[in-house]
Specification:
The protein is α+β, with helices and mostly antiparallel strands. It has helices at about 15-25, 30-40, 60-65, 95-100, 120-130, 150-165, 200-205, 215, 390-395, and strands spanning about 5-10, 70-75, 80-85, 105-115, 135-140, 170-175, 220-230, 240-245, 250, 255-260, 265-270, 275, 280, 285-290, 300-305, 310-320, 335, 340-355, 360, 370-385, 395-400, 405-415. The strands form 4 sheets. A 6-stranded mixed β-sheet has the order 2-3-1-4-5-6, sandwiched between helices. Helix 5 (about 120-130) links the parallel strand 4 and strand 5 (about 135-140).
């Protein structure tokens, strides 16, 4: 069964938690003990109905403050598809949380309050969706009941959003008018919105095309996570390289190159547990054996001879800073790229984004939730792809060696 991973994002009080709660409730995806907990909580809307937003309240602090301060993950399924929902916080100061939740999403749902229209947070979240190369965007114009289901309001928001995203790298954009509170167009089409003849939210989620075919077109990459050498009497000459294929596929007989060393060989055998395979497709976790004994370590990468990535120590990356301490230009950070960890240092801040205006400006300060582009130099050569063409091989994290905390997410754009 297909799996769709999507994230919901919007400003505070746009109704993200209510939307998700309604989706779960109306698809009978709420367990009995959860329903009992809702009844005990006795949280009601103004019209006396159950406050379904409680279904996504994960922390006591969130409930007390009335906001969602972390990414809450929810799971449900229908007869047609399985779903993982990431509910991102709406506050400006939690931009980093959205980056975390959106990094593996197939779809982003941008909620817009019908009364407020396109606002700063809409701009900010749409820019992040573009930066993270999420292939599909669904704009849910929520709270249509509070504007009397006015088609003109919906059309105005649609026009404004098209103007906003005209210069952003966003692929497919769809629009649905909804009321999460009343349930309009959430699971079934609403008679209150007769001028809208499209699908309900659930109908859209069940049928939207997941662009998994894009990964099939990616060049084959195999980051080595572990070198297996039992060195037992039975397996005295066993040498396998364990990892996960992240794009394309490998088959027995393929000529491959180990990076960054550049040594070449051919694939002799592919194993999945104790079973031998002829082909390892994208996403498969396997053990690869080579015909020649070449020097390969954890963190190296196997690629096909005619499908080689960038290999460089100097590269540029889009970056979202996640630490309360600002970027220290004099400090040597650690970069984690698959199984490889190497020291890196900032060479130059190319620009920092003003997420309110989307303008790029030079800066000598990079603090919490700041987004921009930075040039790095690493101690070791890295084998990477542009993030937009292969997220798995273009993404990395930055670690502060002083406390071992993850301080930034990187989306590599190019080498120098």
């Amino acid at each position: 069964m297909d799996l769709l991973k999507f994230i919901t994002a919007g400003s505070v009080d746009d109704g993200k938690s209510t939307l998700i709660g309604r989706l779960l409730y109306d698809t009978d995806s709420v367990l009995d003990d959860q329903l009992e907990a809702i009844q005990r909580a006795n949280r009601k809307n103004n019209d006396g109905t159950i406050d379904l937003a409680i279904l996504t309240d994960g922390l006591k602090a969130e409930r007390e403050q009335g906001i969602t301060i972390d990414v809450a993950y929810k799971y449900f399924q229908t007869e047609k598809r399985k779903f993982i929902i990431a509910d991102a916080p709406g506050h400006i100061q939690y931009t980093r949380n959205m980056v975390t939740g959106a990094s593996n999403a197939d779809l982003a749902i941008i909620l817009i309050d019908a009364r407020k229209g396109v606002i700063e947070q809409t701009r900010r979240h749409s820019f992040l969706v573009s930066l993270l190369a999420i292939p599909n965007v669904l704009v849910c114009v929520n709270k249509m009941d509070m504007v009397d289901y006015d088609k003109a309001v919906f059309d105005k928001i649609k026009t404004d959003y098209e103007l906003l995203t005209g210069n952003l790298n966003i692929g497919q954009i769809d629009y649905i008018p909804v009321s999460a509170l009343k349930g309009d167009n959430i699971v079934v089409q609403s008679p209150n919105i007769p001028w809208y003849d499209g699908q309900s939210l659930l109908g859209f989620l069940e049928t939207v095309t997941i662009n998994h075919h894009l990964t099939d077109k990616q060049q084959a990459r195999f980051p080595v996570q572990w070198v297996i050498r039992p060195q037992t009497a039975e397996l005295h000459d066993y040498r396998g390289y364990a990892g996960r294929v992240i794009g394309g596929s490998f088959k027995v007989g393929d000529r491959v190159v180990a990076l960054p060393s550049g040594f070449s060989s051919s694939i002799k055998k592919i194993e999945l547990s104790s079973e031998e395979l002829s082909v390892a497709e994208n996403g498969a976790s396997v053990t690869i054996h080579l015909a020649e004994d070449i020097d390969i370590s954890r963190g190296d990468m196997l690629v096909k001879e005619d499908e080689q990535p960038e290999v460089s120590q100097l590269f540029e990356a889009d970056i979202c800073w996640m630490d309360t301490k600002p970027l220290d230009f004099s400090h040597m950070y650690l970069l984690q790229h698959h199984g490889k960890t190497t020291k890196v240092k900032v060479q130059d801040v190319i620009y920092r984004i003003n997420v309110d205006t989307l303008e790029k400006a030079s800066s000598d300060h990079f603090g919490l939730n700041d987004i921009g582009q930075i040039q790095f130099k690493s101690a070791d050569s890295l084998a990477f792809d542009n993030y937009a063409s292969n997220k798995a091989n273009g993404g990395a994290i930055l670690i502060d060696s002083r406390n071992n905390l993850t301080v930034a997410a990187l989306m590599i754009t190019k080498s120098e």
